[in-house]
């Protein structure tokens, strides 16, 4: 079994991620038909501390590709980033409730939503604004000048 660990401090939160990967799947011989092509399995333990409180989560993975523990951490992190973006789109735009049937319309709306989020995120980061994204976006609905300020911000 291979192990890799990372530690990050971000926004007052310390997160330690430990990945464990094994390609020893012979002991699963009777169950391999359920996962054709299985090459390895792994787990990531996320231990994070914020405001003096520590939380611990386990995430489990199977893969058709042999991965190192370092690769598992990388791919899992990329997946979490995608899920984070989806969560933002759903929270701010109720994307999951959108009933647009036309695939071109869906793609265009998705691009517009992501563009809006990126403009607001860039504005927040560059101005060190403490205003939540949702409030900035609401301000844009009420004031066209705010939209222009965010779009034209360099």
Walk me through this protein's architecture.
The protein is of the alpha+beta class and 154 residues long. It folds into 2 domains: 1-80, no CATH class; 98-154, no CATH class. It has 4 helices and 4 strands, in the order ββββαααα. It is extended and about 65 Å long. 7% of the residues are buried. The model has no long low-confidence stretch (mean pLDDT 88).
Concise account of the structure shown:
The chain has helices at residues 69-93, 103-127, 133-142, 144-151, and strands at 2-10, 13-22, 40-50, 53-63.
List the helices and strands and how they pair.
Layout: E1 2-10, E2 13-22, E3 40-50, E4 53-63, H1 69-93, H2 103-127, H3 133-142, H4 144-151
Antiparallel strand pairs: 1-2, 2-3, 3-4
